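The step that takes the researchers longest sounds almost clerical: writing a folded protein down as plain text. The outcome of that step, for a single protein, is printed below.
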Amino acid sequence: MRLGAAIDDAARSLGAAGVEAPRREARLLAAHVLGVRAGGLLPADMDIDAAALGALVARRVLREPLAFITGQRGFWTLDIAVSPDTLIPRPDSETLIAAAIGRFPDRSAVRRVLDLGTGTGCLLLAALSEFPGAFGVGIDISPGAARLAAQNAHASGLAHRAAFAAADWASSIGGRFDLVLCNPPYIREGDLAALMPEVRCYEPVRALAGGADGLDAYRAVLRQIPALLAPHGVAVLELGQGQAEAVAALAIDAGLTHMGTQGDLAGIPRALIARAARGG
């Protein structure tokens, strides 16, 4: 089948299913079938396997996330493999990397990085790509996530600088770190049912649900962070919308010094930055 006609058909099916930007997604699925980069030129008169494209479109019509269908999502400067064991990396989370870079203008000052709830490993691997002298440890309660993160480290050429393990937050971690990253579950229980179907039906609920007020994971993690930070160390945690003040209070109660927040591209406070109270 000619590519132009196939994309037209796919876009109509996706639009009817309520998928946003259906033509863009049709092109991305077609590029995946063809094995070319999504931004590449796709001549309308070339041929495509209509059955192969149709199978992917059928999955997307059921609102399976595009990243799960293609198996990849870009994050920072990296191509990250994804799976149903993990959340799909989101651009908002890149705010944590920008915040970390801002706290360490001397990149050589970061030698040890810890990523709690590592998922795909995207935060840890992005940090290691920016702090070339650092070694990182990624922890996730899901063994499948820890395995996927290790695979992403290998694919990114960072396996020699990273280690991953399945554990409950920092329960099995010793030593101190210059940088602690964490993107915890922070969706309130009452809000889960209203999430878009791509998230609600396909991404792991344990990585989303933050308890009745969305703060359960923060309470658990922030209690552990002071003992994990080196004297000059910094912790950067992702925030849900409207949670900055409450999480800052929890950080102070845990013995940390709140250093402020950093907004995402929409100006929403997305990263909380804190250090040990004894730090300078």
Summary: The chain has a mean pLDDT of 94. Residues 3-62 form one domain. Residues 3-16 form the longest helix (14 residues). The chain has two domains: 3-62, 72-276.
